[in-house]
């Protein structure tokens, strides 16, 4: 089994989900006492969040690049970036670490397409919903249509992520806000929902909502575990290793 290098702590609430889901998948496939070989670099998210909201993406990316190098030196065979938003700097992480990176969009989009959906309602941080790094991959690589909430909806979704979910706070009032936003996405033409922030699954149930839900944190974790176990159907989800 190969060793996964997890870039986590953004926030640690969702990194916990990654660790659980990766190990659950390995046990499901291999049985017995099998578990995943993982190395985790967990950030102080306050430092990353400050850089995000200041628009200092190059500085934030440099921190992740350095951490990815450390994961390689520690023995990681691939990088798993346990956050949607910071995939904005994923290309630099691959170059800096010289390791393949399992991109969060790819297994999610593959599952959406194989399920027969084509019009994605996207929830995430304001950065993920508004910038092109995420939406363009869904559109250009997978031919999906992407619908995001209106400005008020984006602001509400973003605030709840940072003020509540990243702090482990779950409020029924906020669940209601999200369900209203999801209903609006459905009315705008979305036929499925992508939880494009790894914390949103703490608030939005995978079943029983307005739309079929694709939880990126869970899907990404399962894809990473499958890659580590050498399951051939995950080979296309990574870029080739960059040789020294």
From TrEMBL:
InterPro entries xref list: Asp/Glu/hydantoin_racemase (IPR015942), Asp/Glu_race (IPR001920), Asp/Glu_racemase_AS_2 (IPR033134), Asp_race (IPR004380)
Membrane-spanning ranges: none
A Pfam family of this chain: Asp_Glu_race
Keywords in alphabetical order: Isomerase
GO molecular function, one term: amino-acid racemase activity
Key word Isomerase present: yes
PANTHER family: ASPARTATE-GLUTAMATE RACEMASE FAMILY, GLUTAMATE RACEMASE
Protein family (similarity comment): Belongs to the aspartate/glutamate racemases family.
NCBIfam families xref list: asp_race
Identification of the protein by name: Aspartate racemase
């Amino acid at each position: 089994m190969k060793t996964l290098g997890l870039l986590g702590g953004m926030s640690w609430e969702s990194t916990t989900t990654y660790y659980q889901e990766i190990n659950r998948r390995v046990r499901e496939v291999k049985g017995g006492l099998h578990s995943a070989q993982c190395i985790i670099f967990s950030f102080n998210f306050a430092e990353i969040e400050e850089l995000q909201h200041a628009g200092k993406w190059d500085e934030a990316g440099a921190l992740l690049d350095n951490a990815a190098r450390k994961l390689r030196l520690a023995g990681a065979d691939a990088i798993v970036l346990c956050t949607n938003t910071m995939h904005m700097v994923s290309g630099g992480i691959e170059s800096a670490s010289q390791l393949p990176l399992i991109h969060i969009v790819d297994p999610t989009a593959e599952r959406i397409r194989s399920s027969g959906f084509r019009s994605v309602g996207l929830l995430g941080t304001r950065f993920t919903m508004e910038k092109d790094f995420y939406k363009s991959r869904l559109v250009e690589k997978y031919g999906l249509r992407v619908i995001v909430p209106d400005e008020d909806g984006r602001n509400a979704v973003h605030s709840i992520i940072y003020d509540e979910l990243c702090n482990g706070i779950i409020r029924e009032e906020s669940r209601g806000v999200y369900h209203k936003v999801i209903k609006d996405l459905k009315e705008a033409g979305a036929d499925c929902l992508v939880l494009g922030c790894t914390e949103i699954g703490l608030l939005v149930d995978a079943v029983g909502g307005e739309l079929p839900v694709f939880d990126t944190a869970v899907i990404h974790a399962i894809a990473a575990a499958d890659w580590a176990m050498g399951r051939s159907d995950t080979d296309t989800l990574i870029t080739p290793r960059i040789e020294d």
